[in-house]
Amino acid sequence: MTSRASGTILFVANFPANTGYAWDFVERLYGGVATRLAPRGVRTLVAYPEIASPPQTLVGTPAEPVLLDARLDSVRSLRQTVSFIRHERVDLLYLADRPTRSSRYLLLRAAGVRSILVHQHTSGAATAPRGMKRLAKWMLARLPGLTADRVVAVSDFVARRQVEVGMMPARRVARVWNGVPVFPGGDEVSRTARRQLGLERGGPLVVCTCRATPEKGVDHLLRAFDRLSVGPGEGRGSPLLAYAGNGPAFRRLQMLRDSLPSRDRIHLLWRRWRGESPWLPRKSAAFPRSSSME
What we know:
This protein is an alpha/beta fold. The chain has helices at residues 22-37, 75-88, 104-110, 131-140, 156-164, 187-196, 218-228, 250-259, 273-276; strands at 7-12, 42-48, 64-67, 92-96, 115-120, 150-153, 173-175, 205-209, 240-244, 266-268. It has 2 domains: 7-175, Rossmann fold; 187-283, 3-Layer(aba) Sandwich (Rossmann fold), CATH 3.40.50.2000.
């Protein structure tokens, strides 16, 4: 930390710079925090395991990207992170979707970190502990240094899971919903967006944007839409489903879509969502969240 700064925050990205998808949103949050805190003399660093090109999400913000694998998944990562924390005098470590309790946090605190914050976007698959296991988790969650000082959950469900399954003290858990920006524009903007995406025909529009992974539950959304659709074909008043995203499960979603009777009304937009879909939620009849872990 330089002499002109009153503190240093280290945000940790779990993926390479410019990965996209939800990480665009997460990293813009980092940039927004940096912008708010810079006038107070707070320095903001964002660690990436790989940087092939400058992070677009941080452009125009005071946040400084640094090449550092701070995911703590290996001894090498832990050693490098501890060294970086000492050298840069990091005060606050901000992790995303990492364990809320870890013995490695003791080493980070010994290196100079005063507070550890974990932003949880998913709930995990563990079940609520019972008996001695419950008692052990309760005690571990209250041992000094082992547990994050604050856990930010994206939903009430995730927050409850932190308390009921993770046995985190409720006072350390805060629910902060993700904000969805509403872009300006009227009917003409909506018509232009639908025309660009090939969705001019049809009635109400159901939109889903997320990465194509099994836990996001997009397959459930496709099946539910198919069951609720009435009648074949693409009539002007028939509802449309637009999924925008990509990932390891995309091919399976294509195969599922092709097997459904309503396949002509289900549009898989691949990665085009990054540049065009922000206009769609404003005029969508529904904007569902199908994730099974949020």
